[in-house]
Design a protein that fits this description.
Elements: H1 3-38, H2 50-72, H3 78-101, H4 105-111, H5 113-273, H6 282-295, H7 299-306, H8 310-320
Helix pairs in contact: 1-2, 1-3, 1-5, 2-3, 2-5, 3-4, 3-5, 5-6, 6-7, 6-8, 7-8
């Protein structure tokens, strides 16, 4: 049973109880007032309803307080029980007294219905309220236990979710750490490969530079050697050329001296020979003209020595004259 059904049952019980109480009070007032009027002085007949009202007020107090105590789960002790039964018995006695005095058993039975119903309703409603309160307490305890269980379940679920999230974070952190370590290992391997490649390239470059340096040094050495050999060869050639030139110069000087000596001798011989007695043959004349040209004799002197004409000798001198050589002056005179 849920709380809505419980509240509906409580409203039905409370409404029925108060309906019975009000009906019993009204019936008691209508029944007891004539009895009290007969047993009261005539001047005080108007006080006849007071006693049933007081008794009924006690009934209302008992019913209301029992309702409140049952809702709160409390117990008033024995005096509320005494008051409840005393008011019920007083109501029963007041309602059946008139019929009992008249010895009317049917009247006693009829007038005892409302008081007995009021007594039983008060006890039953109290029992119902206590049972409902106990059921509500049990239901509330069950709901509290269920809420506590749900709260514990939520806490457990939250803790499990936190544990799962923590495990996921730890797994993610472990994966990220492994990924970073893997990437770091790859980076180290890449760096080592790059360093190894750079070292190999540097070593290859150094070897190439060493080979190039050796080749350059070898070429430089060969070039220096060739240059040295060339210089030596040039020096040898120059020395040979100088030696040859000196030899040629000496030979030329010797030839020049010999030629000068010969020319001197030939000139002396020509001068000693004197003018020709007649015209010599051409070969002899040419030899004499050549010697005379070399000795620096004039055309006329050469013509006198060979016996040929000055013009012919001039022609021979023109053929023998060097452009840089001043030569002998031409004589215009004829033989």
């Amino acid at each position: 049973m849920n709380s809505v059904q419980t509240r509906s049952a409580e409203r039905a019980l409370s409404g029925g109880t108060w309906l019975i109480v009000c009906g019993a009070m009204l019936y008691s007032i209508l029944t007891v007032t004539p009895l009290m009027a007969r047993h009261t002085a005539d001047d005080w007949d108007w006080t006849a309803p007071i006693l049933p009202l007081v008794v009924d007020a006690a009934v209302v107090i008992v019913v209301k307080l029992d309702d409140v105590l049952s809702r709160l789960g409390g117990h008033g002790g024995r005096w509320p029980v005494v008051l409840r039964w005393m008011t019920g018995l007083m109501t029963l006695a007041l309602n059946t007294a008139d019929s009992a005095l008249k010895k009317d058993l049917v009247g006693v039975a009829v007038h005892s219905v409302a008081p007995l119903l009021l007594i039983v309703t008060a006890e039953a409603s109290l029992a119902y309220r206590r049972a409902i309160a106990a059921a509500e307490a049990t239901h509330k305890a069950a709901e509290d236990a269920e809420r506590e269980r749900r709260a514990q379940q939520r806490l457990a679920d939250a803790e499990r979710r936190r544990q799962d999230e923590r495990e996921q974070r730890e797994n993610a952190a472990a994966l990220a750490r492994e990924q970073r370590e893997h990437e770091a290992a790859l980076a180290r391997e890449q760096a080592e490969r790059e360093e190894r490649r750079a070292r190999e390239e540097r070593e290859a470059r150094e070897r190439a530079e060493a080979l190039e340096r050796e080749a350059r040094e070898r070429r430089e050495h060969e070039r220096e050697q060739r240059e040295h050999e060339r210089q030596m060869l040039e020096r040898q050639v120059r020395e040979r050329a100088e030696a040859e030139q000196q030899e040629r110069d000496r030979a030329a000087a010797r030839e020049q001296r010999e030629r000068e000596d010969r020319i001197t001798r030939e000139r002396a011989a020509l001068l000693e020979r004197g003018p020709a007695a007649g015209k010599l043959d051409e070969g002899e004349a040419r030899r004499i003209v050549t010697v005379a040209f070399g000795a620096g004799l004039s055309v006329r002197q050469a013509a006198e020595l060979c016996g040929w004409s000055v013009g012919w000798v001039s022609g021979r001198y023109a053929g023998l004259r060097d452009p840089e050589h001043t030569g002998a002056p031409l004589a215009i005179a004829s033989q």
